[in-house]
Every structure is written in structure tokens, then in C-alpha cells.
């Protein structure tokens, strides 16, 4: 017997423990990671309403060009913004994120919270394999896209030590494109491109 939300909670727990193991299970960092995960969950609730607010007439209509633009400029832009916000708020309010690796971990756990809430939606449909597929693919994609943004931000501050806004915007744009193309491929039923993107993202964590 499967309880609704059990696989999502298990996925969340495994990934969260994995990231805290990287960070040495420091109580202070675990606490802030929990806050960021909760932030990712809360901000995810605004995604659908923001799609409508910022679509500006751009909606999928089964044409490749317009659908791709919608998934990149509306879905990708909205979701990446919402996933980054909890990390930026913690950065602004407290200097708990003070090492390069903490930027990547914080971005990843924010994406993890976002993906947890998003995965509850297909869970309500009770289709065999839906949750397992999203746990493997969508969660990893969300984590990779947001950690890409935070990696570039930490790189600009700790290594390049210049132009943090330019690095941030470049990485943010790349994450939106990756996000949009992945969603576009999934919506079109293009299993091979989506699979290749997922494998690429998995390899980033090897």
C-alpha cells in the first residue's frame, strides 16, 4: 500500500541528508538548510499564478517556436527565480552561507523543496511510475539548474572577484534555457533529448 506523498518525502529526505553529509552535518548549516528547503516549498506555491501574470500573451499553442519560448521565458524564468529567492534572502539576512560549497548546497536544497511540492501534483493522479520518474529526472534537473546559478555566483565572489551580477545573469539565463528545453522536450514526448539532459545533470553529481 502506498501512502500519498511517501515517495516525495523519501526523495526529499535522501537528498537532504546527502547534501548535509557534504556539509559535515554542522547544526547551524543544517538549520539554515531547513529554512531554505521550506522557502523553496513556499515559493513554489506562487509558480502557477506567476505563469499567468507574466506570460504576456505567450501560451503554448502546439507550435515548436512558441511552445519553446513559453517554457524558457515563462516557466523556466519563473521557476528559477522562485528557487533562487530563498537563498538570496538568507544571504541578505544572514552570512551563514560563507563558503563556495555552501552556495551550491543552498541552491540545491532550495530546488529540492521546490521539486517536492511540484512532485505532489502528479502524485495525485495515481499513475504507475509517474512519481518514480519525476523523482529521478525532475528533481535532479531542478537541483542542477539552481546549483548552476549559485556556482557562478560563488565563482564571481570567491575566484574571479569581479562582476557578480554579470556572472549571475549569465548562469541564470543558461539555467532558464536548460529548464525550458527540458520541459519542452517532456511536453512534446521527446524522450531521448529529455533523457540525455537528465543524464548530463546526473553526471554533475558524480
Q: Any overview of this molecule?
A:
The protein is mainly alpha-helical and 206 residues long. 80% of the residues lie in helices and 0% in strands. It has helices spanning 6-22, 27-44, 47-54, 64-93, 100-123, 130-136, 138-160, 164-188, 191-203. The longest helix is centred in the middle third of the chain and has 30 residues, at 64-93. It is globular. Residues 123-130 have low confidence and may be disordered.
Question: What structural class do you assign from the helix and strand content?
Answer: mainly alpha
Q: How many helices in DSSP terms?
A: 9
The major sheet is characterized as: none
- What's the total number of strands? 0
Mean pLDDT: 82
The Rg value, from CA coordinates, equals 17 Å
N-C termini distance: 33 Å
Strand content: under 5%
Principal-axes shape call: globular
Uncertain segments are 123-130
The share of residues in helices is: over 70%
List the helices and strands and how they pair.
Layout: H1 6-22, H2 27-44, H3 47-54, H4 64-93, H5 100-123, H6 130-136, H7 138-160, H8 164-188, H9 191-203
Record keyword descriptors for this entry:
mainly alpha, 9 helices
Compact overview of the structure:
The chain is built from nine helices and no strands. By secondary structure, it is mostly helical.
Amino acid at each position: 500500500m502506498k501512502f500519498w506523498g511517501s515517495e516525495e518525502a523519501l526523495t526529499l529526505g535522501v537528498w537532504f541528508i546527502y547534501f548535509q553529509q557534504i556539509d559535515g552535518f554542522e547544526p547551524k548549516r543544517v538549520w539554515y538548510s531547513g529554512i531554505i528547503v521550506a522557502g523553496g516549498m513556499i515559493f513554489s506555491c506562487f509558480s502557477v499564478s506567476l505563469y499567468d501574470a507574466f506570460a504576456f500573451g505567450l501560451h503554448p499553442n502546439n507550435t515548436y517556436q512558441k511552445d519553446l519560448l513559453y517554457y524558457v521565458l515563462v516557466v523556466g524564468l519563473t521557476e528559477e527565480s522562485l528557487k533562487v529567492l530563498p537563498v538570496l534572502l538568507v544571504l541578505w539576512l544572514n552570512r551563514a552561507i560563507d563558503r563556495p560549497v555552501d552556495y551550491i548546497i543552498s541552491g540545491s536544497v532550495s530546488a529540492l523543496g521546490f521539486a517536492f511540492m511540484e512532485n505532489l501534483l502528479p502524485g495525485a493522479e495515481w499513475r504507475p511510475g509517474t512519481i518514480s520518474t519525476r523523482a529521478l529526472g525532475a528533481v535532479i534537473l531542478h537541483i542542477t539548474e539552481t546549483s548552476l546559478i549559485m556556482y557562478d555566483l560563488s565563482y564571481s565572489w570567491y575566484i574571479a572577484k569581479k562582476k557578480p551580477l554579470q556572472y549571475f545573469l549569465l548562469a541564470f539565463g543558461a539555467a532558464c534555457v536548460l529548464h525550458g528545453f527540458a520541459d519542452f522536450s517532456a511536453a512534446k514526448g521527446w524522450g531521448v533529448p529529455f533523457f540525455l539532459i537528465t543524464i548530463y545533470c546526473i553526471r554533475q553529481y558524480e
